[in-house]
Amino acid sequence: MIIGVPKEVKDKENRVSTTPHGVREYVRHGHQVLVESGAGAGSGFTDDEYRTAGATIVESAEDVWSQADMVVKVKEPIEPEYPLLRPGLILYTYLHLAADETLTRVLMEKEVTAIAYETVQLADGSLPLLAPMSEVAGRLAVQVGAFYLMRSNGGRGVLLGGVAGVLPANVAVLGGGIVGTNAAQMALGLGANVTLLDINVDRLRYLDHVLHGRFHTLMSNQQNIADVVCEADLVIGGVLIPGARAPRLVTREMVAAMRPGAVVVDVSIDQGGCIETARPTTHSDPVYVEHGVIHYCVTNMPGAVPRTSTFALSNATLPYGLKLADLGFVE
């Protein structure tokens, strides 16, 4: 099979789907790999590294898409890439179709076999290809929130961990999955006062145990969300329903009740967002202010830390990619 690795074209998306090690593995399994020139530059990989691993370097995205049997990407195709889609092509990438009807229809019309990383699910319900980027996004959400809480960046001027004699910031985390757990751990590490909400009391009990009761847990319901959000300096949305649009948990009225200069980071925005006032943003224009609250809703957050993200993503996706390449796809 011919495997294609194009350069990502989404705004400031510096990840690449396959590392030189991944190329070496595809080649070892008897496959040919086409890598667009410069595809790995944002993650610190040179064309020569890919050549040494056995890839053929091609000059354009069109060369990759037109020749490959399977295109391995990081993010969903965007409009300039739609003409490159074709019947019979296997597309292996994040898609987040629950929030993108247009792309869903394009993939159907083009008769593409699209396999979304975020919907690959094991028997125990876990999502092995979504997990690594959820870890990155959850941790990054706290860093981003801390940055925008600085007065020089428009925020309240609150230090997450406070100092001796001064209270720390209040951080509300919606969802106790991988995003929420990593966000809570990071915020706790910085000394914040953290409250995590989830609908699963067993999950809350587990997190309370493994984090040694160092943060607050609450059942997620409308009243508890409203009470916690209005007191929060930083709200992190990390809610996921696999394969479906994220539920809207935080209403416009709740956001309006927050303090001016507070920050919202909606990690679930790639699935439609769990905060009513959230709308997708980009790395080039990451924030906007609504009701006096700073909103950060970048749909490809891990792209900001590509060196970490690319290794984490490729480690998870490569074994499945090899199976697809070795066995092909049977409907």
UniProtKB/TrEMBL annotation:
<feature type="binding site">
    <location>
        <position position="203"/>
    </location>
    <ligand>
        <name>NAD(+)</name>
    </ligand>
</feature>
<feature type="binding site">
    <location>
        <position position="198"/>
    </location>
    <ligand>
        <name>NAD(+)</name>
    </ligand>
</feature>
<keyword id="KW-0560">Oxidoreductase</keyword>
<feature type="binding site">
    <location>
        <begin position="239"/>
        <end position="240"/>
    </location>
    <ligand>
        <name>NAD(+)</name>
    </ligand>
</feature>
<feature type="binding site">
    <location>
        <begin position="298"/>
        <end position="301"/>
    </location>
    <ligand>
        <name>NAD(+)</name>
    </ligand>
</feature>
<feature type="binding site">
    <location>
        <position position="220"/>
    </location>
    <ligand>
        <name>NAD(+)</name>
    </ligand>
</feature>
<dbReference type="Pfam" id="PF01262">
    <property type="entry name" value="AlaDh_PNT_C"/>
</dbReference>
<comment type="similarity">
    <text>Belongs to the AlaDH/PNT family.</text>
</comment>
<feature type="binding site">
    <location>
        <position position="15"/>
    </location>
    <ligand>
        <name>substrate</name>
    </ligand>
</feature>
<feature type="binding site">
    <location>
        <position position="134"/>
    </location>
    <ligand>
        <name>NAD(+)</name>
    </ligand>
</feature>
<feature type="binding site">
    <location>
        <position position="75"/>
    </location>
    <ligand>
        <name>substrate</name>
    </ligand>
</feature>
<dbReference type="Pfam" id="PF05222">
    <property type="entry name" value="AlaDh_PNT_N"/>
</dbReference>
<dbReference type="GO" id="GO:0042853">
    <property type="term" value="P:L-alanine catabolic process"/>
</dbReference>
<feature type="binding site">
    <location>
        <begin position="267"/>
        <end position="270"/>
    </location>
    <ligand>
        <name>NAD(+)</name>
    </ligand>
</feature>
<feature type="domain" description="Alanine dehydrogenase/pyridine nucleotide transhydrogenase NAD(H)-binding">
    <location>
        <begin position="149"/>
        <end position="297"/>
    </location>
</feature>
<feature type="binding site">
    <location>
        <position position="279"/>
    </location>
    <ligand>
        <name>NAD(+)</name>
    </ligand>
</feature>
<keyword id="KW-0547">Nucleotide-binding</keyword>
<feature type="active site" description="Proton donor/acceptor">
    <location>
        <position position="270"/>
    </location>
</feature>
<dbReference type="InterPro" id="IPR007886">
    <property type="entry name" value="AlaDH/PNT_N"/>
</dbReference>
<feature type="domain" description="Alanine dehydrogenase/pyridine nucleotide transhydrogenase N-terminal">
    <location>
        <begin position="4"/>
        <end position="137"/>
    </location>
</feature>
<dbReference type="InterPro" id="IPR007698">
    <property type="entry name" value="AlaDH/PNT_NAD(H)-bd"/>
</dbReference>
<dbReference type="GO" id="GO:0000166">
    <property type="term" value="F:nucleotide binding"/>
</dbReference>
<dbReference type="InterPro" id="IPR008141">
    <property type="entry name" value="Ala_DH"/>
</dbReference>
<keyword id="KW-0520">NAD</keyword>
<dbReference type="GO" id="GO:0000286">
    <property type="term" value="F:alanine dehydrogenase activity"/>
</dbReference>
<dbReference type="InterPro" id="IPR008143">
    <property type="entry name" value="Ala_DH/PNT_CS2"/>
</dbReference>
<protein>
    <recommendedName>
        <fullName>alanine dehydrogenase</fullName>
        <ecNumber>1.4.1.1</ecNumber>
    </recommendedName>
</protein>
<feature type="active site" description="Proton donor/acceptor">
    <location>
        <position position="96"/>
    </location>
</feature>
<dbReference type="GO" id="GO:0005886">
    <property type="term" value="C:plasma membrane"/>
</dbReference>
<dbReference type="InterPro" id="IPR036291">
    <property type="entry name" value="NAD(P)-bd_dom_sf"/>
</dbReference>
